[in-house]
Amino acid sequence: MKTLRTNQRQGLQGALEVPGDKSISHRSIILGAISNGDTEITHFLSSEDCLRTMQAFEDMGVSIERTKDRVLVHGVGLNGLRQPKHALNMGNSGTTTRLMLGLLSGQPFTTELFGDQSLSRRPMKRVTEPLSQLGARFKVTGDGRLPITVYGSQELNPVDYRLPVASAQVKSALILAGLCSNGTSTIIEKQQTRDHTELMLRAFGGEIEKQGLTLKVAGQPKLIGQPIRVPGDLSSAAFFIAAATLVPRSAITLHNVGLNPTRTGFLRVLKRMGADITVQNRYDHAEPSGDLLIRSAPLHAIELTSDDIPSVIDELPLIALLATQAEGTTKITGAEELRVKETDRITVVAAELRRLGSEITELPDGMIIQGGTLLAPQETDQVDSHGDHRIGMMLAVAALLVKSELALANASAINISYPDFFADLNRLIPARRAAL
Ligand code: S3P
């Protein structure tokens, strides 16, 4: 049980750089491992999820050196991975699992993947079904969930697939399988999702073309290791952006936050709600980034529909919290994917924010949130992450607005994406002034 900081009446102040982007950190290990030569990664996110990806490649014979500031991957090339001696543990990481399923489909060996309880409930058919059409075979126990055995094949057909869900993980799994095939693959997205795999693959020397929602990927490229500086994770920055927006008299700067437009939906949504966010400097590398200045501001309700969802998918729990403090009623629809995240994030967000007095109606694909709520514990002075890192951090931000004491159950889940979250939050909270 973690005691949360509550009753934050002085504004948040100061500056920090949030840890590296989770999606980019996973992909830098994967692409580095299947390239020729070395990939030096700086500002890598050393969180539980990304370390699962690293361990999986070490288990497949890739040598990876890790110091505090950098990770050095000694690539083995697209055909250089070795069969692991034991089943690969995916922990809680959906990204590791789905991307690995794609890559392992095209390897000449059999691998078994398993994960924790939450991951073992998440749907994997969305990946194994299209991969089966390419010639990969799977042993799936239960209803399309982990544990899964992948019988890889070096004779994969190129991919020709229209995605029925908006998912960067499924898209990336198919791109990785396409790389192992002997032809050009065509992948058509349902909606634009984060495009880190595409941008990074191009930087590593892969051939990938994009026209609208259609991607064409060439098989068997010669990938060359690259230096990568991972930008700060906007999805982690989002917790402090929300906190500074909500706690009166705040003004904080977050340095070097990733600003890939497929990820910045949260900033667009917040601006529509009336937030005060300025991008101060832009750094235009393969992945754009910039410094953000956030000042507290009053918010008003908005409506989010399916077009808005992919670029804010991980930030929706926070948007729900922000909506409880906005003027008016916020409606979110088209977000049924939330039900298959680390938890069912519609049910869990509604349940936990209700414990603090919010009025939230669950919809099958979203929620309706009444604004203007004074957050206060109703029956207990505990909230619960339910083992979901983003729920845990959202509740820690909510706690700043609560006057009485509040504790968080299952707080260690936060290590999945942000092990230093509480230390960084404390850095933005000014020391209490001595009573006059
Ligand atoms: C991710 C894609 C998204 C996102 C997840 C990371 C990725 O999942 O929610 O946190 O790195 O590709 P889906 O592909 O399931 O939408």
TrEMBL record:
Pathway: Metabolic intermediate biosynthesis; chorismate biosynthesis; chorismate from D-erythrose 4-phosphate and phosphoenolpyruvate: step 6/7. GO terms for cellular component: cytoplasm. It comes from the Bacteria. The active site is at residue 314. Its main location: cytoplasm. Its EC number is 2.5.1.19. 3-phosphoshikimate binds at residues 22-23, 27, 167, 169, 314, 341. Phosphoenolpyruvate binds at residues 22, 94, 122, 169, 345, 390. It holds the Pfam family EPSP_synthase. It is found in: Cytoplasm. Keywords: Amino-acid biosynthesis, Aromatic amino acid biosynthesis, Cytoplasm, Transferase. Belongs to the EPSP synthase family. Monomer. This is 3-phosphoshikimate 1-carboxyvinyltransferase.
